[in-house]
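Hi team,

As requested, here is the filled-out complex form for the protoporphyrin IX containing FE run. I kept the field names the same as last time so the parser does not choke. Let me know if anything looks off before we queue the next batch.

— J.
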Amino acid sequence: MTRQRVSLGPERKPWVRIAPDGSEVVVDTLYDLVGSDWFDELAKRFYDGVAADSVLRPLYPDDLDGPTHRLSGFLRQYWGGPADYSAERGHPRLRMRHAPYVIGSEQRDAWLQCMATALAGGGLAPIAESAVMEYFQSAAQHLVNAPD
Ligand code: HEM
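And here is what came back:
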């Protein structure tokens, strides 16, 4: 596992990598810290979890390649990478795009559980992992569109 750690700043979180010589290299974004493939691998692990989840699986199409591509592209863009998602899909408008699906607390929690498991396989330092997970918690809450 790559040694990485992050220190929390007042606004944007500065992501800090430990260079091979032991010095700290401050980068601006999570994308700069982990690189492009990390997002593909995260989305792949996430959808492996979805495939085995009885709450989430019925919401998604049979073929999970499209969803995997869209999620990794969105996350790569959100966390500071190239804007390929918007080039392909336009403005994210995630609340609107999730409107066709009933998302209550059960679906939200199942989604977050799959993502927590996927993220745990990502090799981030605990403090960086917590920062990313906090983002997912808030984003998932924002997408809840059905009362319990
Ligand atoms: C709260 C629980 C959530 C549920 C049940 C859910 C479910 C879904 C479903 C069924 C789709 C359609 C699959 C596809 O065609 O791509 C989808 C798409 C997507 N979801 Fe979620 N989602 C949730 C939360 C989130 C969160 C928190 C994010 C981002 C942080 C996210 C990002 C996306 C993206 C980027 C797409 C593709 C949108 C597009 O371009 O069409 N989702 N989601």
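Two things worth flagging: Confidence is low (pLDDT under 50) at residues 7-11. The beta strands are 4-6, 15-18, 24-27.

Thanks,
J.
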